[in-house]
Design a protein that fits this description.
Rossmann fold, alpha/beta, 7-stranded parallel beta sheet, 6-stranded mixed beta sheet
């Protein structure tokens, strides 16, 4: 049962994390929460647990896993504000929040560097077949020339970035030292001066698929438009293309990408996100040329700590009525 401690005759306001944290993650969150609030963490990251506890919450710190839909919002009778730990809002019913006049805040740009660094790592590790080679050595296999001649350099490649927000821009910045050709497609285009600074060139989405040796996703997911990469897009790509996805799993049709891997059209993938998470038995695991990780690109120790501190700071300032100090409000009734 949830406790309702009373301090100085008043009920302590409650922050509910819509996820289950333990270990270092929980300690960092606890450290960020000050004495003004009571922290509640789900015992399990399930919808049933969320519905069980959300009615007592004054504030939600929302991770990207559980849906914050009409049923959850209606159940949250005390809810004053939602704070997203990151920036993705595809799991939140933003239209209904506006109807209910409940503001939603995001940590805009907070994990940009972490995701960008991880993206570059996936590009390099895939081209260099780093994990497959590591496994060979661990299994006593020494095939120097045979293995080395299956690897490739990043220099001189054409990199297609889909999405040019904070993360896309940071990826472009980091890529400059590798002497690559960067093309991009984005609904919102940066200024001409920004394009010059980043050394990037705008192309149509179709042209990006045709030109790119490596395609990396850095856009948000839209339920109405669906996949960015499906069977149709796969047919447009250069043979031997590498795909990297550190954005959202539902941006790529896994069946279409797996078929392209089987046919050799796609030479390798670096995948940090999946259509359904968490993943237990991914079809991608069949392929030696696919690198997999559990949605960790934006969760370095430094970023996670900053993320929790900013989330609680926003809630604290909002609670005081100091709205001018609250960072990045997306929806405010």
């Amino acid at each position: 049962m949830l406790s309702q401690p009373v301090y100085s005759g008043k009920r302590m306001k409650k922050i509910l994390l819509t996820n289950h944290y333990d270990g270092t993650a929980l300690e960092l969150l606890k450290k960020a929460v000050n004495d003004e609030f009571e922290l509640q963490v789900l015992e399990e990251a399930t919808r049933d647990e969320l519905l069980k506890y959300v009615g007592e919450a004054d504030y939600l710190i929302v991770s990207g896993r559980l849906e914050i839909d009409k049923e959850v919002i209606d159940k949250a009778s005390r809810l004053r504000m939602i704070q997203r730990t990151g920036v993705g809002i595809d799991n939140i019913d933003t239209r209904y929040l506006k109807e209910k006049n409940i503001p939603l805040y995001v940590n805009q740009g907070i994990n940009s560097n972490s995701v960008a660094e991880y993206t570059i790592m996936l590009m390099l590790a895939t081209l260099k077949r780093a994990f497959a080679i590591n496994n060979q050595i661990r299994n006593g296999i020494w095939k120097k020339q045979e293995t080395a001649l299956q690897t490739h350099e990043l220099k001189g490649k054409t990199i297609g970035l889909i999405g040019m927000g904070n993360i896309g821009k940071r990826v472009a910045e980091l890529l400059k030292v590798f002497e690559v050709n960067v093309v991009y497609y984005s609904i919102v285009k940066p200024s001409v001066s920004e394009e010059t600074r980043l050394n990037i060139r705008y192309v149509s989405l179709e042209q990006l698929f045709k030109e790119s040796d490596i395609i990396s996703l850095h856009c948000s997911y839209n339920k109405e438009t669906g996949y960015v990469i499906s069977k149709k897009e796969s047919s447009l790509m250069k043979e031997g293309v590498v795909l990297v996805n550190t954005a959202r799993g539902k941006l790529m049709d896994e069946k279409a990408v797996i078929k392209a891997l089987e046919e050799g059209t796609v030479a390798g993938c670096g995948i940090d996100v999946f259509e359904e998470e968490p993943v237990r038995n991914s079809e991608y695991a069949r392929f030696e040329n696919v690198l997999l990780s559990p949605h960790v690109a934006g969760l370095s120790y430094e970023t996670f700590s900053q993320m929790m501190n900013m989330a609680v700071y926003n809630i604290s300032e909002f609670d005081k009525g100091n709205l001018s100090a609250v960072e990045e409000c997306l929806y405010n009734g």
